[in-house]
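Marked as duplicate of an earlier ticket. Keeping the data here for the record.
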Amino acid sequence: MASNELKSHFIKLLNEGKRLDGRDISELRQPIKVEYGISKTAEGSAKVTMGDTEVLAGVKMEISEPYPDTPDQGTIMVGAELIPLSSPEFESGPPSIKAVELARVVDRGIRESKAIDFRKLCIKKGEKIWILLIDIVTLNDDGNLIDASALAALAALKDAKFPEVKDGAIDYKKKTDKSIDLVKEPIAVTVFKVGNHFIVDPTREEEKAIGTRLTITTTKNNLICALQKSGDSSLTQEDISRMIDIAIEKAKILREAL
């Protein structure tokens, strides 16, 4: 079905209060499942399932020198790999624009929410800090990768334990009981505008008919810490307010899955 025809069909269904897969307009797919400790080699890991979308996230820890402007702070680095096994639209090679955007949105949500006190990742001011490397890998892409990836990254951070350090060297075979001190738990919810309707958690087929989306990352007290818009269509102030309300409501459901 051509994209214009698909969009027309989609809007027609939305006018009737239904989605392409039979859901109600604002309904999240089920199951929403978070599994911890998926990888034995990572310091922390988690797998998130949302409908048929599956994403794996892992945390590795390295000791490095701090940045000159933040000598007493550690940091995070987020990377995303969209493997061909998970979608016929993904190709091997350098990170695609979609992979870069995915990593940046997840990174921004964690960073701007102040979920981690980076000063607590400092080992010795001006000399040594911890870097948390968060890797996201798609296992099956059936839409809404951003929300699934953000949830998986947060779950992996919750699962992580610091490795043992002896004489300045990391022993990755031994983990301590020390966890990452997560001050806040940011949840990303992407709201999509289709015609005059707003939906969440689209399937991959539904995404083909969508032109504009807004990812809203919020904390438990409903504080907005990050926004990311994508698509050519403009959004009114009223649109944004409505999308934020929806995101806050759906974040509560995703938070329960943790």
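See parent ticket for discussion. The mean pLDDT is 93.
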